Fold:
Amino acid sequence: MVIVLPICPRCGQKTEDWFSYCKYCGLPLKQEKEKAKKPITIKVRVEEPEETALEAEEEIEALPPKRTEAKVVEKTAEIEKIPEDIKRNLIERGKTYLVETRLRKLNRDYETLKTRQIVGEITEEELEKRAEPLREEISEIRKTLQEMGAAEPLNVEVLLAEKETQIERKKKLEELLIKGEIRETIYQKLFSEYEAKLKEVEKKLAEGIRQKWLVSLEAEKQELLDQEEMLTAKMKIGEVPVKEYQTQKKELETKIKEVGLACEFLEGVIERFRITEKDN
Structure:
């Protein structure tokens, strides 16, 4: 019998089978044997045949249907339409509102000066000196309003003026109490009277001020501006003759100005309401 001795894979020398290490180079022989026993995995790439159109269609049908999200349709909020008579009143008031606003401020300044003179902050001579230019401007503005044919104030303006009056009375009453010019009992009675009137006016104001009207007017103004822009485009294209364009443009400009005045008037009224709320 012929015994074949294993050969060291590193140095090539023959060594005994039972040796753990090669006696020539020291290579661990057992580890090399274990590595040789491990199965070798060979990866083979196999190309799949292309799907036919029919098979692809069947596979798509077999898949669960995709969920489709419902489309959200935004609805434009309806704008409250202003009655024509109220709209006309707002436009008329808008024409004189800016002038009246200035007049209101001058009157407040004049009343403040008189109050300061009453409580002793300024002398009567100082009052006359400072009040003279105020009185002159007030007189000029009143003449201007007469020439403009000032319209009657709307109910909401009357209520606002009443509210401002009651607030001013409460302030003056408190000043008199602080200065010791009235007794506490008198202060309480008058304060209760002014406060009751103020609450009544506030209730009516809350019902009377329609901020939705301002939204409606602003929307109408924007629509008129769009019409004006479209008219200009049609003229430049040649669809509308120049003479007709000029006539229509003038009409639109008048309407835009009127609606703009009404917007300014309502904005001013709403702002006055907010200011008096803060003061109160």
